[in-house]
Amino acid sequence: SSSSSSSSSPRQTLCGSSAGSIVSAAHMAGIPISDCMNVVTSCASAASAQGPLTALTPGFSLVDVLEPLMRTSIAESAGTEEAEALDEFARERMNGDRVRVFLTDPKLFRYPGDFKSHAFVNDFEGMEHVMSACLLSSYVPVATGPLSPAPGTAVHAATEYMKGRGAKRSTPEGVVDVDPIPQWYDGGLAAMFPKIDDGTVLVSPVSIRSPTNLVICPKWVGGEAGLKIGSRGMTADSSTNNLVGVKNMIMPQESKEYERIFAGAYDDAKRVCKEAGLVPA
């Protein structure tokens, strides 16, 4: 999962794929950090309760656990459950290129980080549009939701909503419109670290390097070479620290462990920003 922000455009834009899309939407909705943590621990508890396969247990859908929690958190932040008021809240907080939710076109996708298969939504009709885009940006068949979503499931509802709505795609010639397609998948498959330009600050839960962008992530402790990821010159630290980080992303943790991880992420953000001169030393 990843999210990023850019200060190169007139207004700050938060870009997110997979869990990063949910973080971006939650931030713009003004959801308190404590509520975000409660959502994380609730999802982890639900996955852990499934047994040794956790979220991969047949019949379990992490997206369906997340959906009502996300709706409740946004409604509480908006101070209303009324549909029209929530739609207005979503448009006011998310539109104007404030949030870009990244998605993957499964028919174009060839390999992890295949940026040509990406698309994004940054103009939302209302709350249902925000919810549907974020849920599909976090949908990996079998891993986070059912392979064939049935009516009544969150993925099915989000897919049906998005079928009539297009998206956009960044190309060397600029941003182009993308026609509606039958199904979108997790945005992190195509855009693991979404960005607008070289001024975008990338955020990663594992240690990576970019040849062009500042990256907020854990400290690099492995060899200099690293492992190539994606198609845009990114490399990942090959140390065991990164392997542990990947495990923490996949396997649910106890609440105390998430508190430790979040505290470490805060320290990493402070360290990187100080080194880059973005905050006082």
What does this structure look like?
This protein has 281 residues and is α+β, with helices and mostly antiparallel strands. Helices cover 38% and strands 16% of the residues. It is built from eight helices and twelve strands. The protein has helices at 19-29, 33-48, 62-78, 83-94, 127-137, 154-162, 240-250, 255-275, and strands at 2-6, 13-17, 99-104, 118-121, 167-171, 174-178, 185-186, 200-203, 208-209, 215-216, 227-229, 234-236. The strands form three sheets. Strands 1, 2, 3, 4, 7, 8 and 10 form a seven-stranded mixed β-sheet that branches. β11 (227-229) and β12 form a beta hairpin. The two termini are 29 Å apart.
Topology:
Elements lengths: L1 E5 L6 E5 L1 H11 L3 H16 L13 H17 L4 H12 L4 E6 L13 E4 L5 H11 L16 H9 L4 E5 L2 E5 L6 E2 L13 E4 L4 E2 L5 E2 L10 E3 L4 E3 L3 H11 L4 H21 L6
Parallel strand pairs: 2-3, 8-10
Antiparallel strand pairs: 1-2, 1-8, 3-4, 3-7, 5-6, 9-12, 11-12
